[in-house]
Amino acid sequence: MITRAFTYLCLLISVNAGAEPYTPADDEIIAKARTINTAHLNQDELMTLLINSQQVGQTELRQGLLKNQLQQRYAQSPTPQIGYMYARVLQREHQFSAALAITDAVLKRDPNHVNTHLLRANMLMVQGDFKAAKQQCLKLLALTAMDVINTCTFDVLSQDGQLAQSYQSLANSITSNKQSDNTRHVLAEMALRLNKPDEALAHIQSLPLKTAPVSLVVLWADIYLAQGNYQKVLNTLPALVNEKQNLEDALLLRLAIAEQHYNDTSLKQWQNLMAQRVALRELRQDSFHANDLAHYYLDINKQPGKALYWAKINWQQAKLNADQQLLTRAQGASL
Question: Is 213 helix (H, G, I), strand (E, B) or coil?
């Protein structure tokens, strides 16, 4: 499952929405390894690498390097910023218990570390502990802007049975021209969950995809899929990376779904590439990608038993509304 980050950098890109859909070569299956010497990076450089590593095509290339380096540095000198970065990396692998323990230690050292409060609130929310997540958001009072606190709080409340109210409250609390990228991201998620894809797109259409986190790009793709604009997805996502095998599983899944529904039924390249990626994940019993695997067996290669198997594994890790809906769908399909 791709989890949303709270901060990211944005640059402008352009994509050719009217071109013919791109199809990959048959041997483009999975990301190639890259090498970088992280040992000589200072703390700010590590943070830049961490931020960049959440962009499309980057999330797995640097994960191992970042995790090893931050683990070593945290063991040697557990500063709040190093602890925050290390917890972020662990969160990506759904190692929530370890990540939460580190955020707890960070906040004992520095109770005013805003990003750690936000990260902790997000992890608690993903685990379904909405009361604790809301309390964590409210601990930001007097530490940061009310816009940040409102976004954090209403995000949690929207997962706790108050979606429509939270959407309106958050939208009304911040004028649109002053909304942060993260607020726009949260509002777009809420709008899509309310089955308002046009409104969802309006919230994020000005945000550049090239430097956005994968979670936002996945949301962007889901909006266009909901609108039935499959060509837009097929044209845009491949253009975000130089090497197509670097596309994340969640994005390959959206490409496969778009290709399956596209008016040219002879297109099979993305579906074939996703099938190969799925085979690799299953071989590794890769629970981190359980959400994508469950969707694959529900929406692409319909196998209800496998869909339910992976949906149950996903539910063990994440308990947002979308995870509940995925489990319910898989249970219904397997009847």
Answer: strand
Q: Give the pair of three-digit tokens for residue 209.
A: 């995809």
Tokens of 267: 């297109």
- CB under 8 Å to 94, separation ≥6 — which residues? 1, 287, 288, 317, 318
Residue-level pLDDT at 200: 98
**Sign, CA torsion 245/250/289/74:** positive
Question: What is the Cα 72 distance to its own chain's centre?
Answer: 26
Closest CA to 185 of 212, 224, 166: 212
pLDDT digits (tens, 9 = 90+) for 129-154: 999 999 999 999 999 999 999 999 99
The backbone torsions φ and ψ at residue 76, rounded to the nearest 5 degrees and listed phi first, read: -80, -40
Q: Give the separation between CA 245 and CA 330, rounded to whole angstroms.
A: 28
Q: Could you read off the pLDDT of 103-128 as tens digits, one per residue? A: 999 999 999 999 999 999 999 999 99
- List helix spans (H) across the chain: 43-52, 63-76, 80-92, 96-109, 114-126, 130-138, 146-159, 163-173, 181-193, 197-204, 214-227, 230-236, 249-261, 269-284, 290-299, 304-317, 321-333
- Contact indicator for 278, 293 with CB cutoff of 8 Å: yes
pTM for the full predicted model? 0.88
More confidently predicted of 32 and 245: 245
Place of tokens 């590439």: 273
Phi–psi pair at 55, nearest 5 degrees: -85, 165
CA–CA dist 249, 278 (Å, integer): 8
Give the rounded distance of the alpha carbon of 178 from its chain centre. 24
d(C-alpha 86, C-alpha 98), whole Å: 10
